[in-house]
Design goal:
Keywords: Membrane, Transmembrane, Transmembrane helix. This protein is an alpha+beta fold and about 110 residues long. About 40% of the residues lie in helices and about 25% in strands. It has one domain. The strands form two sheets. A four-stranded mixed beta sheet has the order 6-5-4-7. Strands 1-2-3 form a three-stranded antiparallel beta sheet, with helices on one face.
Length: about 110
């Protein structure tokens, strides 16, 4: 029983990673995309922009839908999950084709032209 501290150290790892994983809170469905701040309807977007430095390490994707909900997320974070990115990208492409406002950087980096 003199090694109780070792068990405490071993069991603390999963607890730390559990809460670290809940930090981002990114999810998507067939027609919506959500982060902890709210959700947007990806097939009803009115604004799709990429802002940030030209180096590409800190590009943020900014989305706004018809209801006025706006979200901003790091582009690398959302593209890290391929299935989630596919759902969101399809909605972005649909919205841009229907007239959502974009900037040149979004058109180039997301290949929306």
């Amino acid at each position: 029983m003199s090694t109780w501290w070792m068990w405490l150290l071993i069991l603390s790892g999963p607890v730390v990673f559990y809460f670290y994983g809940k930090k981002h809170g990114i999810s998507a469905g067939a027609d919506w995309f959500a982060v902890k701040g709210g959700h947007v309807d990806v097939y009803e977007l009115t604004k799709v922009q990429i802002v940030g430095t030209s180096g590409g390490l800190s590009w943020d994707l900014e989305l706004a839908d018809r209801k006025g909900t706006e979200l901003s997320i790091n582009l690398r974070e959302i593209q890290a999950n391929r299935d989630l990115w596919d759902l969101v990208y399809n909605g972005i492409a649909h919205s841009v084709n229907r007239g959502a406002k974009t900037n040149p950087k979004a058109l180039d980096k997301l290949k929306l032209r």
